[in-house]
Amino acid sequence: MTRTKHSVGVATLDSRYVNVTGDTMTGALVITADSTSILNVTKADATSVFNVDTTNAQTIFNGVVDKDAIVLKDGSTKKASLLWGTNTVTLDIFSEEPTNKISNGTFETDLTGWDIGNTEETDANGDWVLVPGNPDFGTGGAFYVMKYEAKYDSSGDGQGNTAVEASAEADTGLGLDYRDLTFDSAKVVSTANGAPIVHITQTQAISSCPSSYHLISNTEWMTIARNAEAQTANWADGTVGSTVAASGGMFRGNVGNLDSVGYNGTDPEYGTGRDTKAKFTLSNGTEIWDMSGNVWNWTNDIQSSAINTTAGWVEWDSANIAAGALALYGPSSASYLSTYGMGKIYGGALNNAFLRGGRWSNTSTAGVFALALNNAPANQSDNVGFRCASDHVDLSHSTAIKYSGTSSMKIVNGSPIDTRIVQSANVGDTSTYTLIAYAYTDGSAVTSADLELWYDSAVLSTSYTSVGGGWYRLSGTLTGVASSKSYGVQIKAVKTVYVDNISVQAGIGTTQTFNVTNSGSGTVKTNFEDTVTISGGSDTQQLITQAHSTQTVNISEIQLSDTTVTGGWDKVGTLFMKETTTPTATTNYGKVYTKSDNKLYFQDGAGTENEIAFV
What we know:
By secondary structure, the chain is mainly beta. Helices cover about 5% and strands about 30% of the residues. It is built from three helices and 42 strands. The radius of gyration is 36 Å and the shape is elongated.
């Protein structure tokens, strides 16, 4: 065999990798040290991440705080890692885990399989439905909206009141007059019962929603409208794109005209047992009432740039409508006119406010896409009300903060409603399962105030264990069912949480053993200069001190700083203690000790000394 050696001072290799194959005679790659190091690996910014330093006889890993600095793997499987954080160093030894019944629980490439699991929720302000977000309108993963038009609970029973009950009758019609109320936004509710609040200006409506909610925006309105438009349940004949003339069309509700999509109810209508033409069903099965007809609804928008500045009702295909306006404010197709139940648009001056949906007497001009631009923000009427919505719930794929692997799921719950992120899975049997998730907030402790585990239709009793770097392991046990159930987490109101490594597994991972041994003929002694805490990870012995087969000295000793032995366990396991004098009492604690009189004593927390007698 012929061997060729090449020696260079500094070599720069631009290829993706260098593969050096050796023979049985010598190393495949030999690096000769310069004056300071044999090998120095740097990032693009020249920061050293690995350095074999010959001057100080050191091998140096420069890691990132709260990230694994040294990882041991078996192929692609992580076995152990060394992680350092602020004032802490963690040796993490991974167990072999049982089969995970959840798919894509590590979120390595995307969030496939995970959904916002809420539909309809009830809080102190009534009924709220979850609306799936629409990226075309920037409405995030989802948001909550009033199931009903805004009502007023003047009696404090959680239900909206009639105008008569609240002593707030509108000028005409059955609405509840905002002007007659000593108004408190905390009393605004979303209930079937109670008359809609009317005679309210847009300016007033903007500040009239309950705490942590806001006046619905046009983008939120459009998210609901486009979702409803796509559902066959909201078309009179069950066919999307059908016309009213053909006994089809999209429902208009209480608009003063009886046909396939509308009816003539009271002015306005409220209560239970109503005509279902006033109701839309969304893609997630939630139901929302009076998005068309009954009373107009303010949104928090104004016509800041021209949409339609010509007074009068026109169809959505009118030349009066600005280019691009249909996509932002109208139905999904320019061919969807009022003959399809969509509603029309009424033009008005710049800076006028948005009114949407129509009222009880608008007939064919009403519809979920109806838009009136002829009212200033300070205008009010007996047929104008409002509706509130929450900030959005956003799900995103985070590569910046993760427990392991390449990424995690970032959940921003901007709403005041606890929101669950779940996956439907069938574990297939009735074994005992453990639901596990890893969570991070801002580096502080993760608690039930941030999130809890969710199983089926309820919160699962959750334990929280710190695993370093601000990450916490959440776990809870459940009895499996051989049918599909929801598994995941519930994020508390107005919280941001990163979640990673969600799993559902039968039992727990295998027990791993950490050995400190000397493979030679000697032994190993381990010294700790500060507190040692042993935390129980399972229901087993937490500390075992085992004697040598030929033990000749004490198995365990308690020593003072000057090495004086004050007690312990002798070579055969007998407890012993050094004779002392009567100690100083400690409130709420008892003490056992012996003195030079060869007697055993117990002292209580108050300092009373009692001789322990044996009979």
